[in-house]
Design goal:
alpha+beta, 5-stranded mixed barrel, 9 strands
Length: 275
């Protein structure tokens, strides 16, 4: 049997040699360009699928709104409104400042001083005014505020849902939650008054107290699953563009082999096939 020692124009090409021909390299460049375009479209869809959470400055909760536009007295605060910055006008009622115990401020336990704001509309609102780590200081500030004359006040702060009353059997007279349902039992001037089922953490603290830390609520990242599906489709299309090129090359290679075999059969001239 004769052996072919070198490749010539009559010898069938291997698949690799077919791929490296100028024609198919040019088509590969085109397929890669198409795949890159599809991949770019997939990246664009993926970026649109994730809507970044607003920053502290751009979050909807950071635009100050009137309390009356956010919640009505004796109504629950809607979830999307929790933490909203609000403003409210009214007068603090003397004698209704009190101390709330076991309140955290940046992880440190201490005391709040809270007041009863009679709003311009005649409703009752609990306001957390400031924090201290000393009970003596909190009680002293509350006592001083209770001695001050009644005057107009403007409060800006973050509104939160009212808390439930909690009773400590070891300290039954301590108030540990911002619970308007409990406050109404000790507040004055409550005849025929509607009470807000929320409380406001003031942005400004009275002398002797620290401003209460009230960061904005965390903003969740929104995910659009339809855009993710489209992004996956574009990735599949990109891969298909390269696969289609490979399939065309292989078909051309196999067709070349078949044509050579047919020609050999017709001419009855055996030629050793090299894969």
């Amino acid at each position: 049997m004769s052996t072919i020692s070198r490749r010539d124009s009559e010898q069938p090409r291997t698949l690799l040699r077919t791929m490296l021909s100028a024609r198919w390299i040019a088509l590969l460049v085109l397929a890669l360009a198409v795949a890159a375009a599809f991949a770019a479209l997939g990246k664009w869809q993926l970026e649109r699928a994730y809507r970044a959470a607003p920053t502290q400055e751009t979050a909807p909760t950071e635009t100050v709104q009137l309390l009356t536009e956010i919640v009505e007295p004796e109504s629950l605060l809607r979830t999307e409104r929790v933490g909203q910055k609000v403003s409210v006008e009214g007068e603090f009622v003397p004698g209704d400042y009190l101390v709330v115990v076991n309140r955290l401020n940046d992880g440190e336990s201490g005391y709040w001083v809270a007041g009863h704001l009679a709003t311009e509309e005649g409703n009752a609102l609990a306001v957390a005014l400031g924090w201290t780590d000393s009970r003596e200081t909190a009680e002293s500030v509350a006592a001083q505020l209770n001695e001050e004359p009644r005057e107009a006040a403007s409060v800006t702060g973050r509104v939160l849902s009212a808390q439930f009353p909690e009773l400590d059997e070891d300290a039954p007279y301590d108030i540990s939650t911002m619970a308007p349902a409990w406050f109404v039992n000790v507040w004055h001037e409550m005849d025929d008054v509607s009470v807000y089922e929320v409380y406001v953490i003031s942005d400004a603290a009275p002398a002797g107290l620290q401003t209460i830390s009230a960061p904005p609520p965390e903003q969740e990242v929104e995910v659009n699953w339809l855009n993710i599906f489209y992004a996956a489709e574009w990735v599949v299309f990109a891969g298909f563009a390269v696969f289609l090129w490979y399939r065309l090359v292989k078909d051309a290679w196999e067709r070349d082999i078949e044509e050579r075999e047919l020609a050999e059969a017709e001419n009855a001239t055996p030629v050793e096939k090299v894969d």
